[in-house]
Amino acid sequence: MTMSKLKKELLPEQREELLRALKARFEKNMNRHKGLEWAKVQAKLEANTEKLWSLNEMEKTGGEPDVVGHDKNTDEYIFYDCSAESPEGRRSVCYDREGLEARKSAKPENSAIDMAAAMGIELLTEEQYRELQRLGDFDTKTSSWVMTPSDIRRLGGALFADRRYGKVFVELFGIPKRKQKALEEIMN
Known about the structure:
Blueprint: H1 3-7, H2 12-28, H3 38-46, H4 49-60, E1 65-71, E2 76-81, H5 97-102, H6 112-119, H7 126-134, E3 144-146, H8 150-154, E4 158-164, E5 167-173, H9 177-187
Antiparallel strand pairs: 1-2, 3-4, 4-5
């Protein structure tokens, strides 16, 4: 077994503690997963140690992963981080490594893409973020990076989203003025 394999497994006590927390969250928020049964979710999780490890990493950084759906094609349960606000341990970061390296001052320690990869997860797409917001009011005081299309990223921009005034906003961060015309062409 390689080091990375060892690293991505939980001790039995950790696994049991995580499953208890996930079950409690599942039962408390039934509106997020109507028609799904915890016993089936738990059986799938127990068979997938890497997914359990990733969910534990989300928990450790202040997240609240919860089941939000089931993909019938892959027979996998879909989890989103349902913490009311972006967890404190995941705030004040750049979108990706490129953005981080381009920062001249007040450089954050990490990027959202790198943090997600280290946890074995991905950022939500804009569509997924909007699905999350249909389940409750999230990011009313914070913002979250969302997966940015490569054509926008190539121009130096990145997308973030939040909920303000009862509405969901997806906004563009960081495209220099000289590249904004190219973005307008892409959008039209």
